[in-house]
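Hey,
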Amino acid sequence: MALRDHPLEFARPDDARALAAMSRDLIETGLGWEYRPQRIARMIADPDAVALVAREGALVSGFALMSFGDERAHLALLAVRPAHRRRGIARSLVAWLVESAAAAGAVSVHVELRAGNHPAHALYADAGFTETLRVPGYYRGRETAVRMVRVLRAPGQVLPAWRPPTLDRR
């Protein structure tokens, strides 16, 4: 199956359980479970955040959650089910979110990932993110985090006219 079989759309409140389970099983493995359904539901409902999903039929095949500040966006979670990887889903999620952050006027997009997560590091590097530092013990005092940033514009730069990004990345 190709990316066109996994359209991007905004997460719905009833997606919270599936996203929380994916976070637990694919992101937070071995660290405890912080992003439970209630927390994910709050993020989905937050007007200063975007919860984006890729679907194959009714199944959520991948998702990303990003919060927006005045000049900074933070990509908090991103996961793709193992059976759906290598189809461009994560790349599409990141590209849509970066484009949205730029349209919203963000100066930069920030993300943290486990130091040993080499596929994620490569994904973000390919999307124009640069490693800024490593934080030992960031994850529950057990694992080092890599912080990466994608600079979208210089602070104070005049913004172009806003155009909404499309969800369809075919």
